From TrEMBL:
Keyword annotations of the record: Signal
Full protein name: DH200=94 genomic scaffold, scaffold_271
Organism: Coffea canephora (Robusta coffee)
SUPFAM superfamilies the record matches: Amidase signature (AS) enzymes
Domain Amidase residue range list: 48-449
Pfam families for this protein: Amidase
Length: 508
């Protein structure tokens, strides 16, 4: 008699790893490390793993809407991974080999999957090749499970489009509380991995789109230094701010994914060559240290909208987290006089969106023109398409004001160059100066507030689950650092995560 799939998988994982209480990890919350051991010891196959996630998608996605498309070749790819591992093919027993990953729907794949940014505008378009990060994932042996839903056009069609909504799939739902804001734009990546519809996922961030949904869905998100991961083949907003990063259930899972996707890409050569110098020899896994917080100087902007604003309630709520950080050996530096810092950040907040409108039109037009087949070839075409198909795209309800504002721009002239120069100066005079003057390893903020400080300058950040409100809504804690500081941020986040083990699966 056949053992039911779920029972079989639970048995195979049982006893492979244990938490602090000595009880085994359940399959649904197992880490990449756990799965790696099971695969390499023939206790599990990639086909069984993929079948499990496909079943979970069938069961949960009608409610959560976290997945926009499933790869019809996923089981075939899993079978191939099993054959490679059985033959001990080089690379088939390490890292992400044989492990399924869900990609945000703005990351191109040259296969049977669409790449649409959630919009009917790009449905049926054909990309010339895999995105740079997808090439690296395939080289690492990962299985592309499908595309995650997202806020349409990465929340850049209109300010009125709800977080997690797109025309193709509808509204994504926070698996912890249906009425909660799941945040965006990598909504489906966060909700899907939180609900165990995927092992690991990829998201993208321009302005909070990895950190915010990670915080709202009790998962880990790493926003890499801009250029650490290739943006080639990603539906763009701003090459100055766009970055691709992992969204996973644990810091270690996110680091496995990060290791697989970083590095030089000739199709994004300028950015990736410059930032490749920050990649540590041997990768990032060695920074998963149980004493990673010891001696770290963490800045706490107590009276800054970047940090805790003037909310004594938020400060009080985070005192237990501060206590944990201190107990683990971190030195917390209270930053009270933040008036100048806030002024600089507020200026950046307004200026970066002006710059992004110009950058978006140029970058999107270039992306659309290189497609092999596409219903549209420019932002102007996309605006017209939406008007013609207004019911499908709910244009009357949500509009396309950001599209239209970007279309009115005329490239990068003297005024735009000055604007970009001001943004660079503001980043150096704001976040960088604050970090260097206080000799900080990282800045710590509640939820995803760190994004206000790090987005315009292309700095890295990481979010870790921190707790749940009285109604069960998750919230995270975020750490941000200077360019290339991913090793420090991983050490900090991993130690905090291991000290708290706060994450719990959603009550599905």
């Amino acid at each position: 008699m056949d053992i039911p799939l779920l029972l079989f998988l639970s048995i195979t994982i049982l006893g492979l790893n244990h938490n602090a209480e000595g009880s085994p990890f359940s399959f649904r919350e197992a880490t990449v490390h756990d799965i790696r051991i099971a695969l390499d010891h023939n206790r599990l196959t990639s086909q069984e793993l993929v079948k499990f996630y496909l079943n979970e998608i069938r069961r949960l996605n009608p409610v959560l809407n976290g997945v926009i498309e499933v790869n019809p070749d996923a089981l075939y790819l899993a079978h191939k991974a099993d054959q490679d591992r059985k033959a001990r093919k080089p690379g088939s027993e390490t890292g992400l080999a044989g492990i399924p990953i869900l990609l945000k729907d703005n990351i191109a794949t040259k296969d049977k999957l669409n790449t649409t940014a959630g919009s009917y505008v790009l449905l049926g378009s054909i990309v010339p090749q895999d995105a740079g990060v997808v090439k690296k994932l395939r080289k690492a042996g990962a299985i592309i499970l499908g595309k995650a839903s997202m806020t349409e056009w990465a929340a850049y069609r209109s300010n009125n489009v709800p977080n997690g909504w797109n025309a193709r799939r509808g509204q994504s739902v926070d698996p912890y509380l249906k009425s909660a804001d799941p945040c965006g734009s990598s909504t489906g990546s966060a909700t899907s991995v939180a609900a165990n519809m995927a092992m690991v996922t990829l998201g993208t961030e321009t302005y909070g789109s990895i950190l915010c949904p990670s915080s709202s869905n009790s998962v880990v998100g790493i926003k890499p230094t801009v250029g650490l991961t290739s943006r080639a083949g990603v539906v763009p907003i701003s090459h100055r701010q766009d970055t691709v990063g992992p969204i996973c259930r644990s810091v270690s899972d996110a680091v496995y994914v990060l290791d697989a996707i970083v590095g030089f890409d000739p199709d994004d050569a300028v950015a990736t060559k410059k930032v490749s110098k920050y990649i540590p020899h041997g990768g990032y896994l060695k920074f998963l240290k149980s004493n990673g917080l010891k001696g770290k100087r963490l800045g706490v902007p107590r009276y800054s909208f970047v940090g805790f604003g003037n909310s004594s309630e938020t400060l009080k709520a985070f005192e237990p987290h501060f206590h944990i950080l201190r107990k683990r050996g971190a030195v917390l530096v209270d930053i009270v006089d933040t008036a100048r810092f806030d002024t600089v950040v507020a200026s950046m907040y307004n200026d970066q969106f002006k710059a992004m409108n110009v950058e978006f039109k140029l970058a999107l037009n270039a992306y659309l023109k290189q497609l092999i087949t596409s219903p549209v070839r420019s932002l102007a075409d996309a605006i017209v398409f939406n008007k013609k198909h207004s019911k499908l795209e709910r244009i009357e309800e949500y509009g396309q004001d950001t599209f239209e504002a970007a279309e009115k721009t005329h490239g990068i002239g003297r005024m735009e160059r000055e604007l970009l120069l001001n943004l660079t100066r503001a980043s150096k005079n704001g976040f960088e100066k604050l970090m260097k003057e206080n000799k900080l390893d990282a800045l710590v903020t509640p939820a995803a507030n760190i994004l206000y400080a790090i987005s315009a300058g292309g700095y890295p950040g990481i979010n870790v689950p921190a707790g749940y409100n009285s109604n069960g809504t998750p919230y995270g804690i975020s750490f941000g650092g200077l360019k290339g500081s991913e090793p420090k941020l991983i050490e900090i986040a991993y130690d905090y995560e291991q000290a708290t083990k706060i994450r719990k699966p959603p009550p599905l």
